[in-house]
Amino acid sequence: MKYIFKAVNFIILAVVLQSLYFLALIYTLSTLSPYIHYAMTALGIFCVFFIISGRDAAVYRLSWAVPILLFPAVMGVVYLFYNRRITGRRVQSDMLQARKNSLECLDEDAISRDFGSDISNERLARYIEKTTGTPPVCYSGAEYFPQGEDFFARFLQELSKAEKYIFIEFFIIERGKMWDEILSVLVKKRNEGVLVRLVFDGFGSLYTLPRKYYKNMRRMGIECVVFNPLRSLLSFRSNTRNHRKTAVIDGHTAFCGGLNLSDEYINAKRTKAGYWKDSAVMVKGGAAWSFTLSFLAMWEFLTRGRENYAQFKPNPRNFLKENRYTGTSSVPGADSSVAEASVMGEASVMGAASVMGAASVWHDLPLDNESVSERVLLHFINRADDYVYIITPYLTPSEALMTALCAAARAGTDVRVMLPFIPDKFIVSAITKSNYLPLLEAGVRILEYPPGFIHSKNIVADDSRAAVSTVNLDYRALYMHHECGVCFFGKGKKIIADIKRDFIETQRNSREITLEAYRRTGLFERGIRRVCRIFAPLV
Question: 195-214, pLDDT tens digit by residue?
Answer without folding.
Answer: 999 999 998 998 899 989 99
